[in-house]
Amino acid sequence: MRYISTRGGAQALAFDDTVLAGLAPDGGLYLPATWPVLDLGALTSLDYAHLTAAVLAPFAQPVIDAATLEAICTDAYRGFGHPDIAPLRPLKPGLWLLELFHGPTLAFKDFALQVLGRLFDHVLARSGQRITIVGATSGDTGSAAIEACRDRDAIEIFILHPEGRVSEVQRRQMTTVASANVHNIAIEGTFDDCQALVKAMFNDKAFRDRHALSAVNSINWARIAAQIAYYVWATVRLGAAADGVVFAVPTGNFGNVFAAWAAGAMGLPIRRLVIGSNRNDILTRFFATGEMKTGSVFPTLSPSMDIQVSSNFERYLFELYDRDPQAVRAMMTEFATAGCFHVDAAHFERCRQTFAALSLDDAATTETIARVYRESGVLLDPHSAIGVAAAEAACADGNGVPVVAVATAHPAKFAEAVRAATGVTPELPARLADLFAREERCATLPAELPAVERHIAATLAGRGAAA
Ligand SMILES: *Cc1c(COP(=O)(O)O)cnc(C)c1O
């Protein structure tokens, strides 16, 4: 499979180069040149890891063979805390919860990142390269990236977080990882300061090249590809491969729901995709009006969706406009300069045939957590609650096919919000129960580029001497 850019100005790449590149050099996002077709019958009998390997196989060929993919996926999902990896839990008649929070950091990002870290290592080992991953986090992504890259031979990872501004569980999930290639930096500043520092390091060409900086951000194609698997898994598990299924997905960046759309493009019978947003409702507004317009970011109970730019939407736009890179370029230029763009009536109609969207403020999110707990005894984290509310709206539409709400985080990860809604404190899974007793490792630095670059260079020099 070759990969092309949504903006049409970059050379087509093979799978390994696409994974290493992340963003295309023309500013676009990579998509496969064609959509492979799923053989649903052949996937029905597979366990989760083998099903993921089978879904990834056409995307990765001829660069990575089937046996290697199976080994990578089996290893990636070994550490998950549930034998089904992605269990389906019935919530009420016609409505299921797809639990994507049994990974090492208790959020759905583990599904893709556990595979991505191993893919990086495999590809780099073949070419003898080493890379330095640098990233900023407001909480969730950092720990998932660290768990994915820990102990990988070809990778050093540095994660910047704003000192005192992430929850204690989130901080400890990063700082208690004892692997020698993992380096945490608490920045005396905000998340925006952390992001600005990372951006400045990537813009410092000498620094970037000397240390082979790389990123594991959410626009990496391999992350989307790995996420396609759980939509396929849920559908075949429900026996819905013939009649179809509806998915409700809490999303901000459009990544998770684009993976569902991609599964549909590969032949999964998806009847409808329902997007759940919090108060940062750029997507909900788009699906109501056809206009994508960014606004200011409000902090909410579901912080992993507190964004006003849905980067992965560009992939869907490319498809919506029948893969016309000129149309995408025009809209993305308008978005960058004016902060908004819109799609014409005919294309908007097509969007609405596939997608619906619903936005919940914090009060409605809390109410949903409380009500679902009362009705079914299930504790939902705020992100998952938004997904369930979106799924309930889809059930009310009543087209009779199963509706699956995607649960993206474990309730214990957002224990404060869950306790406030239900009076119950969700417990961390046993494998994380000693999180508060583990030793932390973290440097603290001012929000100044020279200090951060000096620290990273010195740390890498020390690691080189040790290696
Ligand atoms: C990252 C995240 C989301 C949003 O995912 P998208 O990439 O925006 O689709 C939702 N819930 C949780 C718990 C997350 O960590």
From TrEMBL:
<feature type="domain" description="Tryptophan synthase beta chain-like PALP">
    <location>
        <begin position="94"/>
        <end position="407"/>
    </location>
</feature>
<comment type="similarity">
    <text>Belongs to the threonine synthase family.</text>
</comment>
<dbReference type="InterPro" id="IPR001926">
    <property type="entry name" value="TrpB-like_PALP"/>
</dbReference>
<keyword id="KW-0663">Pyridoxal phosphate</keyword>
<dbReference type="InterPro" id="IPR004450">
    <property type="entry name" value="Thr_synthase-like"/>
</dbReference>
<dbReference type="GO" id="GO:0030170">
    <property type="term" value="F:pyridoxal phosphate binding"/>
</dbReference>
<comment type="pathway">
    <text>Amino-acid biosynthesis; L-threonine biosynthesis; L-threonine from L-aspartate: step 5/5.</text>
</comment>
<protein>
    <recommendedName>
        <fullName>Threonine synthase</fullName>
        <ecNumber>4.2.3.1</ecNumber>
    </recommendedName>
</protein>
<dbReference type="InterPro" id="IPR051166">
    <property type="entry name" value="Threonine_Synthase"/>
</dbReference>
<dbReference type="Pfam" id="PF14821">
    <property type="entry name" value="Thr_synth_N"/>
</dbReference>
<feature type="modified residue" description="N6-(pyridoxal phosphate)lysine">
    <location>
        <position position="109"/>
    </location>
</feature>
<dbReference type="GO" id="GO:0009088">
    <property type="term" value="P:threonine biosynthetic process"/>
</dbReference>
<dbReference type="InterPro" id="IPR029144">
    <property type="entry name" value="Thr_synth_N"/>
</dbReference>
<dbReference type="InterPro" id="IPR000634">
    <property type="entry name" value="Ser/Thr_deHydtase_PyrdxlP-BS"/>
</dbReference>
<feature type="domain" description="Threonine synthase N-terminal">
    <location>
        <begin position="2"/>
        <end position="77"/>
    </location>
</feature>
<keyword id="KW-0028">Amino-acid biosynthesis</keyword>
<keyword id="KW-0456">Lyase</keyword>
<keyword id="KW-0791">Threonine biosynthesis</keyword>
<dbReference type="InterPro" id="IPR036052">
    <property type="entry name" value="TrpB-like_PALP_sf"/>
</dbReference>
<dbReference type="InterPro" id="IPR037158">
    <property type="entry name" value="Thr_synth_N_sf"/>
</dbReference>
<dbReference type="GO" id="GO:0004795">
    <property type="term" value="F:threonine synthase activity"/>
</dbReference>
<dbReference type="Pfam" id="PF00291">
    <property type="entry name" value="PALP"/>
</dbReference>
